[in-house]
Amino acid sequence: MKNLSLHQLDDQIHAFVNGQRQERIPTGWIHATRTSIGMTLQQLASRLGLSVPAVKKFEQREQSEAISLASLRKVAAAMDMDLVYYLKPKSGTLEAMMDARIEQKALELMQVSNQAMLLENQILDNHNRARELKRLISEIRQQKLSSLWE
To answer: For residues 41 and 55, is the Cβ–Cβ distance under 8 A?
Structure first.
């Protein structure tokens, strides 16, 4: 039967996997997982071939975001777990992130163009502005992706 902390950690892992949670666990994953599965510092140290103070330092370094991925991977393996590491867009998919970036770049180009047109007493109406935005987006999509980050 699951104890409460084990059930809560399962829920938190599930939330991370589904992208519903992004903030860190205050005690760190090592400590939270170790205590949830009922593993003592001594047991983890033994499985890693390290001293208890060394494992405690791992937990502290994780909390301060100073632990290496290699160390996390070793600790995970010692607890019969996998380390999952990835970067994800702040919201949505990579494709949606890139679409937003392309539109932002197109709007920036339009703003420069609009300033020049104002100086010449030319103003696009909403229909032509929308058409120009669509054209710029299409043009930007044909360029190298690296141009979006300049």
So the answer is: yes
